[in-house]
Amino acid sequence: MKFTKFYAPTSKNAPKDAQLTSHILLSRAGYIEQLGSGLYNYLPLANTMIEKIKNIVIKRMQEIDANYLNLSFVCPLSYWDESGRSFVFGKELLRFKDRKDNDFILSPTAEEAIVALVRGKITSYKQLPINLFQIQSKFRDEARPRFGLLRGREFIMKDAYSFHSSYESLDEEFLKVQNAYCKILDDLKLNYAIVDADSGAIGGSGSKEFMVIAPSGEDDLAICKCGYCANVEAAKRQKINYENKIEANLSKFKTPNIKSIDDLANFFKCEKHNLIKAVVKKAIYKDKEELIVYFIRGNDELNEVKAKNAANAIEIVDANDEDLLNNSLCAGFIGPFNLDIKFFIDEELKNEDNLICGANEVDYHLVGVKITNFLDERFKDLSLVKQGDKCPNCSSELDFVKGIEVGHIFKLGDKYSKAMNATYLDENGKAQAFIMGCYGVGISRLLAVLAECKNDEFGLCWDKSLSPFDTYIILSDVKNEEQMNIANEIYAYLKKNNINVLFDDRNERFGVKINDYELIGIPSAIIIGKKIQENLIELKDRKSKESLQISLENKEECFKKIKEFIEK
């Protein structure tokens, strides 16, 4: 391709809202162009790379006998009403009516659509298991789209769905897809971890995320040398056994205006782990809202994802002063004893003693309390894992790194099939709801992740297998006939040998062309400049900065060396 015929509008300036390297470089290098909040055009450079990523994903999915199809991007709202998710997704679900007043949505995910597809068509256990996947645009009306392609409203995603007659079969498919995802990320040469995760709005269990390790990652990961790895949203730790406890008989102390954990620790001259912290949240459900109190150690923080799951709520938000007043709660003095509203206690507090907590009376705390005689269902894993905590598997200290989610796999069970009455006949002729798995990979997100991981101070820096072009011909002076003739000969030779080349034949300054070559990130360059007078051209490796001058005296030998340099 000649640059004068190619569309890649490069720029010296980054978008004003661009914070991450990927957003800055993909925009400046002419890969993407923003047309609205969280909305991007994929220009030819990006489109070429996305197709390469797609081909890798398709290859690895078809190796495990998954079926490639494409569902409509538009889905009837009635499917989402059947599953109950039309309310759960709230404003993130973009809804619209057609001219006949029928309700539709732009799909953010396709569980409902895929269940509707197989419902009534896969009717026997003999047709199972089966795995169906698509690569399709999705739309999620994010409240705060940011970070370019990493958190846009419209995005490209590979989503797969498997149908089974047993959980054993689901487990087998889950492992197959997990291994396929590992191969995909290995093909892309990314450093990644498989982590235990929360299932979020999709639901189900056995959720695992594929996280690319990167300093710019949004997610915090707890990792251990033994192999344990989890998103902090779902991470566990070994129970901490504290030695320096207070010793006191159960009694009520006056603590005038002592409301914070810090003030309370100072008042009693004790460590924060001797205190019980009360965190009040408002849980939001489909048809109601209610206040819930979560009790954790004073030196811990509440894990809001775990808290939401404990309450089985759609969402939890902070309670305000009016909420507390309406429920007769005394801010700063709330405890789990004689409490009339719903509450949960961190499981690490079970059977612990000699603790201090609120007395549910203004200006009073209880000292020497024991966390016993509560129902088992009160106890949940609620604390956020933090630096210094130990691995739940081997007792080594956990490390924390940043990661970017690129894939997520779930064991859905019968959540969607049962809600949508999608059944098959088992060996005994009895109708059973399908057991399902769900497996997602962010295709457009992978482009951004690759840009985050493969760059230097000059621009993008692609591996040859993913680069939009194999090499880049830089012509110093388009008006120099000798340079142009040699460039055209090399260009023709490379095309004949199936080497994908971008020939920069623009009437631009040499410095502009070099800058664009480095910005765009093509793996190598063939530089034809003033050295042509000495019968020399220069070959340059983008990643290593290696430079090699070769003679044009024997063109056949010269062209062969160029080809070898590009393909090495």
Compact summary:
The chain has 568 residues and is an alpha+beta fold. The strands form eight sheets. Strands 3, 7, 8, 9, 10, 11, 12, 21 and 24 form a nine-stranded mixed sheet that branches. It has a five-stranded mixed sheet with strand order 16-14-15-17-20.
Key descriptive features of the protein:
568 residues, alpha+beta, 9-stranded mixed sheet, 5-stranded mixed sheet, 31 strands, globular
Helix/strand-derived class? alpha+beta
Radius of gyration: 30 Å
Number of strands: 31
Biggest sheet character: 9 strands, mixed
Describe what you observe in this structure.
The chain is α+β, with helices and mostly antiparallel strands and 568 residues long. The protein is 26% helix and 29% strand. The chain has 14 helices and 31 strands. A hairpin with a 5-residue loop joins β11 and β12 (229-231). α1 crosses α11, α2 (44-62) crosses α6 (167-187) and α2 crosses α11 (443-453). It starts with 20 loop residues before the first helix and ends with a helix.
Q: Topology of this structure?
A:
Layout: H1 21-28, E1 32-36, E2 39-42, H2 44-62, E3 67-68, E4 74-76, H3 77-83, H4 85-88, E5 95-97, E6 103-106, H5 111-118, E7 130-139, E8 154-164, H6 167-187, E9 192-196, E10 205-213, E11 219-223, E12 229-231, E13 251-254, H7 261-268, E14 276-284, E15 289-297, H8 304-311, E16 315-318, H9 321-326, E17 343-346, E18 355-358, E19 364-369, E20 379-380, E21 399-413, H10 415-419, E22 423-425, E23 431-433, E24 435-442, H11 443-453, E25 455-456, E26 459-460, E27 471-475, H12 481-496, E28 501-504, H13 510-520, E29 524-528, E30 536-541, E31 547-551, H14 555-567
Parallel strand pairs: 3-7, 15-17, 17-20, 27-28, 27-29
Antiparallel strand pairs: 1-2, 4-6, 5-6, 7-8, 8-24, 9-10, 10-21, 11-12, 11-21, 13-19, 14-15, 14-16, 18-19, 21-24, 22-23, 25-26, 29-30, 30-31
Helix pairs in contact: 1-11, 2-6, 2-11
